[in-house]
Amino acid sequence: MHPPLFLHVPHASSVIPEGCREDFLIGAEELTVEQLRLEDRFTDELFGAGWPAAQAWTAPVSRLVVDVERFRSDDQESCAAVGMGAVYVRGTRGQALRRLDLDRREVLLETYYDPHHRACEEATAQALATWGRCLILDAHSYPLGPLPTQRPDAPQPEIGLGTDAFHTPPALRELARSYFTDHGLGVGVDEPFNGTFVPTRFWRHEPRVHSVMVEVRRDLYMNQATGAPHAGFKRVQALLTGFRAALATYAGA
Question: pTM (2 decimals)?
Answer without folding.
Answer: 0.96
